[in-house]
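2024-03-11 09:14:02 DEBUG pipeline.ingest accepted 1 chain
2024-03-11 09:14:02 DEBUG pipeline.ingest length=134
2024-03-11 09:14:03 DEBUG pipeline.predict start
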Amino acid sequence: MLSKIPKCFDTELLMTKDQVLTLLRENGRSDRALVPLRATYCAALGDELMWLYPISFDGHLGARIIAVREGFLFLPYDYIDADEYEIFSTEDARLVDADELRLMRNLLYEYTEDIFQAFGDAIHLLQGRKIASN
């Protein structure tokens, strides 16, 4: 489920960047290692406060963006495992600022707008063929 950031919450309930990275390093650096964090955030804040960024950025295949006490953590990945899902490059994890998030948002919008248009064109093309073949 996609979520929005609550308008008001106690940031002290969030883990720090270092706590998140330690959790990952101690538990396999995979998406599955984030299960305790998701549970903690959901219980305390009603949302996991992390989002998948599924397109290439900053030389990586994709990333998770995670709310942390200091701001937002960019947690890149370059490999996806069938059982563990994303395998994170913790050495490249860093906090992102508003300008970088804005750039990521704009790139994601352009990507999804392009694919949305392409799928619409493909549907139209397929419907035209169906009508023409009758």
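2024-03-11 09:14:41 DEBUG pipeline.report The mean pLDDT is 91.
2024-03-11 09:14:41 DEBUG pipeline.predict end
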